[in-house]
């Protein structure tokens, strides 16, 4: 474990315990099978980034109630619902070193338990009686489902532009991070400037987090990321390293890359060649810089708030998002 | 068209127009594909039972605002979302004489557009700023997803009891009808007694509507119901006519029925035999009586309200649910 990660974990130890307890307490399924499948996806070594963002940014805004932990369950349930549905949509085989839920219980159960988790997220939100926050969460769900449709539509299309890539990851990842920050500002009834600064931080962190994830698929070994390296490419996902690599590649290399995008049956040697080309052409460095730029901007937005343990941990979380890209 | 159906359609002509216009106006998807798939399931000759229930029962409570039509979109989107997901879950081939959406666009799109419709339903609800109604809708979604899981778990299980059957159809159908009535009572800020009477009416109507649907699978011809007769049995769905038929059947007949439940490759002759047995043993009449009892009780609950055109149309809708079983 890196020193940074260890410092973050020390700082949020009590928060993580409260978040885990709330995740168990708020689930309340009627059927054992629902509990089993929801538990499989929820209690699977997730980093709880979204709940932590919510709890820490609420603290940054001076919030002293208890709804932050409650809402953090709602966000994590929503996140788990999208994992269940997206793994099915992507045809993913594994998640965090274990078979994807739809491979164990089938598509039908993955769909329905995802629906249940989504509904739980909204029930929890509704129970707090804050229509603004309900509206934010419902709007988020719309964005996320459409981000996934967009990605699916352009699956395996080498013509996907960087602009489209950023639009897809905004909807499918960054908006959820932004929402975690917005909910805490709404809970704390923070001034508009604080809300906007926190949202900008969350959005930038979300972008960087997804870029890092997409980089890992080309740079890490399989054991580290808990799924097969190259699985994004096998699923036809056009991510930033590849988009940039295509743009930088000359005729023959470009043709070979396009063939790999279109034919998911490529060999390990093909993939090793592609990694080499992305490294040498500077495509990986380009993606790293895209993440760095966003993290630097995200941290600048935190400067609006006075120094505090919560602010320092939010800064650490931003650095941690970057550390994953190395 | 029956005289009853014609009379209902005359009475609700203006309401149906307002409902259709709201369904178009409130959808607001970002992507053309989402509009296309959502439109395919939404504008497909549906009877708009749930929106009509909401609009008519709001009128019964003296509501004079415009949110009833807005919420009626939310309920219909939610219903459409469950149709998309449930057809996938059930492996259904057709709906209303056309291929099921997942057969045209694939499972992934059916899942994601269902998620979008669910999110739209909740966004619309949230936008009206009434947390009670949001809570009712979110709770409904939880119930429905768990009803489907329950049904799926007991698929093809000849031991499913009547009690379980009623619990499944309560969650998957009746609660949505009940919710349509509850939302209108909440909108109109109706007294508790009126809310409870309307909810009891909606719940009873919902039960009867589902029992009628389940009967049609054994009694109608394929052209009338827009899907293959016997498809419930082929999907392993244990419905009331079959549950009762099994209970009434002697040794050999019972064994043959169980074999058909377990082996969806049964022939048309097998199915004709089964229909005959259910008719002769009184199983179909038993299911019809179960629907009749609930409709009679539902109509009695309306007696709390003074006579009015809206009340008469709600009574007609109840009779219409029964007429479908004949």
Describe this structure in words.
Two copies of one chain form a homodimer. Chain A has 326 residues and is an all-alpha fold. Chain A has one domain: Farnesyl Diphosphate Synthase (Orthogonal Bundle). The first copy, chain A, is built from 16 helices and two strands. The relative contact order of chain A is 0.12. Chain A binds chain B through residues 29-31, 33-34, 85, 88-90, 107-109, 111-116, 118-120, 122-123, 125-127, 129-131, 134-135, 137-139, 141-142, 144-146, 148-150, 152-153, and chain B through 29-31, 33-34, 85, 88-90, 107-109, 111-116, 118-120, 122-123, 125-127, 129-131, 134-135, 137-139, 141-142, 144-146, 148-150, 152-153.
Summary of the model, kept short:
2 copies of one chain form a homodimer. With 326 residues, chain A is an all-alpha fold.
- CATH classification, class level of chain A: Mainly Alpha
- Looking at the structure, the CATH topology of chain A is Farnesyl Diphosphate Synthase
> Which range does the strand content of chain A fall in?
under 5%
The multimeric state of the shown protein is homodimer
């Amino acid at each position: 474990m890196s020193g940074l990660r260890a410092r973050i974990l020390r700082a949020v130890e009590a928060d993580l315990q409260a978040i885990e307890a709330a995740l168990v307490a708020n689930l309340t399924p009627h059927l054992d099978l629902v509990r089993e499948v929801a538990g499989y996806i929820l209690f699977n070594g997730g980093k709880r980034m979204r709940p932590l963002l919510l709890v820490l940014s609420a603290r940054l805004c001076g919030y002293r109630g208890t709804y932050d932990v409650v809402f953090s369950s709602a966000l994590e349930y929503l996140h788990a619902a999208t994992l269940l549905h997206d793994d099915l949509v992507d045809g993913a085989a594994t998640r965090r070193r274990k078979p994807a839920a739809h491979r164990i219980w089938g598509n039908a159960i993955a769909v329905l338990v995802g629906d249940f988790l989504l509904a739980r997220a909204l029930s929890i939100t509704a129970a707090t009686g804050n229509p603004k926050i309900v509206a934010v969460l419902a709007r988020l769900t719309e964005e996320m489902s459409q981000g996934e449709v967009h990605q699916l539509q352009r699956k395996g299309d080498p013509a996907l532009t960087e602009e489209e890539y950023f639009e897809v990851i905004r909807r499918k990842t960054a908006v959820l991070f932004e929402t975690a920050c917005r909910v805490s500002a709404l809970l704390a009834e923070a001034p508009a400037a604080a809300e906007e600064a926190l949202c900008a931080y969350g959005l930038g962190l979300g972008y960087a987090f997804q870029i890092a994830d997409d980089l890992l698929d080309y740079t890490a070994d399989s054991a580290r990321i808990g799924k097969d390296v190259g699985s994004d490419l096998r699923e036809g996902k056009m991510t930033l390293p590849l988009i940039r690599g295509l743009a930088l590649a000359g005729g023959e290399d470009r043709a070979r890359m396009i063939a790999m995008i279109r034919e998911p049956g490529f060999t390990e040697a093909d993939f090793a060649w592609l990694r080499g080309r992305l490294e040498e052409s500077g495509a990986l460095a380009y993606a790293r810089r895209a993440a760095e730029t966003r993290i630097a901007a995200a941290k600048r937005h935190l400067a609006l708030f006075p120094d505090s343990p919560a602010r320092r941990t939010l800064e650490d979380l931003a650095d941690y998002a970057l550390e994953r890209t190395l």
